[in-house]
């Protein structure tokens, strides 16, 4: 007997959540540690350890983009909840959630396009960080991954919203 797709998706989501949490923790530790080393070497020892600055900025980019994905996954991104709090009918609330999810998906699709253009431009006209000469497409890759991930979560929310609309039928709240 084959496994249900929803259980496979649930396992994938759980694995992805653990991976995102691990990246966020590692990036947080790197940013904190590298900035501590940077301050210590510069102001205590009088050394110029600019490599730590390059690495901390790289870790910060991955931290910010991972945070965006975690927020999207948990539905904790910024929202304006005035309108939903005023809606009392279940079907109207479901329609509102679906519309918001559709708008978010469209915006995320644009985000993917812009991130791709930035990433492609970075590959065609390579630039590097000042100290370590790391290619700038590395932090740009974090933006691209966040764009694709946020789009996937927006599609998840759109599908769930449409399913809520279908289930609510003509029900009143």
Write down how many β-strands occur, each being a DSSP E stretch of 2 or more residues.
0
> How many strands, what sense, and barrel or not for the largest sheet?
none
Order of helices and strands: HHHHH
The gyration radius over C-alpha positions equals 21 Å
Mean model confidence by pLDDT: 90
What ranges have pLDDT less than 50 throughout 5 or more consecutive residues? none
Q: What sort of overall outline do the alpha carbons produce when their principal axes are compared?
A: elongated
How would you classify the helix and strand content by structural class? Answer: mainly alpha
How many individual helices?
5
| CA-CA gap between termini | 39 Å
Secondary structure: helix percent: over 70%
Question: What fraction of the residues are assigned to beta strands by DSSP?
Answer: under 5%
Structural summary, described in words:
The chain has 173 residues and is mostly helical. The protein has 5 helices and no strands.
Any descriptors?
single chain, 173 residues, mainly alpha
Describe the protein's topology:
Blueprint (H helix, E strand, L loop, with lengths): L4 H40 L5 H24 L8 H5 L3 H35 L12 H32 L5
Characterize this entry briefly.
Helices cover 79% and strands 0% of the residues. The chain is built from 5 helices and no strands.
